[in-house]
Structure formats: C-alpha cells, structure tokens
Amino acid sequence: MFAGLSALVAFAAAAWAVRPIDAGPVGFDTAASVLYARQIAAGIHLEVPVSTTPKPLLTLVDGLAYALTGDWRAISWLTIAVEALGVGLATALAGRLAGPVAAGFVAGALVDCQRSSRTSAEPTP
C-alpha cells in the first residue's frame, strides 16, 4: 500500500517538476536516441556523428514512443511513469527488507531527489 502511495506521490512530483503539458522537455540523449531510431528505421546511416553514446534500450523505447505518437510529450510522460514505478518498487523492497520506517525514508529520499534535481537545474537570477 505504501509503495503505491509513494509511486503516486513520485508521479505527481515529477509531473509538477517537468511540466510536460504544453511541451515535452527532453534531454540531449533522448533527442539523439530518437534521431538514431528514425535513421535505423529508414535504413539510413547517420550523416554527422552525434556527440553522445548510443544507448540501445533508450533508442528503442524513445524511438517507438516518438514513432507511435509523433510528440515529445509522450516520451516525457513515459519517463515520469517509469521513474514513479522505480520509486514504488524501491519503496516496496525497503519495506519488505527493513520495515515500514525504512520504506518511508526511501520514498522520501527518492521523491526529494526529484525535487532537488529540478531546482539545481534552474538558472540562478
């Protein structure tokens, strides 16, 4: 039960931090993965090397999500859902191994980690 609640809180916190409603903010690795997937699907070699290391699973998942929807927001929502799933599973594991107090600490730390990464990425005035 606590794992599901922590996953919902993590989903809400990530959705608030990323705000993928109007536009789908994606990182450089994600954009490169979609580029790789589009070129692979078309059977075309990359004309210019991209300065990121190819990640096969990321290329497959992001490329499929973009190919099916044609929208960057789908990739953002997928990333948020996977992150929330990870928080929920980590909370469940901590609860089974060390009890509900440990599960609470793990959930709090992982959700706060999302908030911290968002605020550190914002430019300072």
List the SSEs and their pairings:
Layout: H1 2-18, H2 28-42, H3 56-69, H4 72-98, H5 100-121
Helix pairs in contact: 1-4, 1-5, 2-3, 3-4, 4-5
Tell me what you see in this structure.
This protein is an all-alpha fold and about 120 residues long. It has 2 domains: about 1-20 and about 70-125, no CATH class; about 25-70, no CATH class. It contains 5 helices and no strands. It has helices at about 1-20, 30-40, 55-70, 70-100, 100-120. The longest helix is centred in the last third of the chain and has 27 residues, at about 70-100. It is elongated and about 55 Å long. It starts with a helix and ends with a helix.
Could you list some keywords that capture this structure?
125 residues; mainly alpha; 5 helices; disordered C terminus
Structure annotation, total helices: 5
Query: What structural class is derived from the secondary structure elements?
Result: mainly alpha
Give the termini separation: 41 Å
Number of self-contained structural domains:
2
The gross shape turns out to be elongated
Strand content: under 5%
Could you give a short account of the major beta sheet? none
Mean pLDDT: 80
Which percent bin holds the helix content? over 70%
Poorly predicted segments: 118-125
- How many beta-strand runs? 0
Q: Give the radius of gyration.
A: 17 Å
* SSE arrangement, N to C: HHHHH
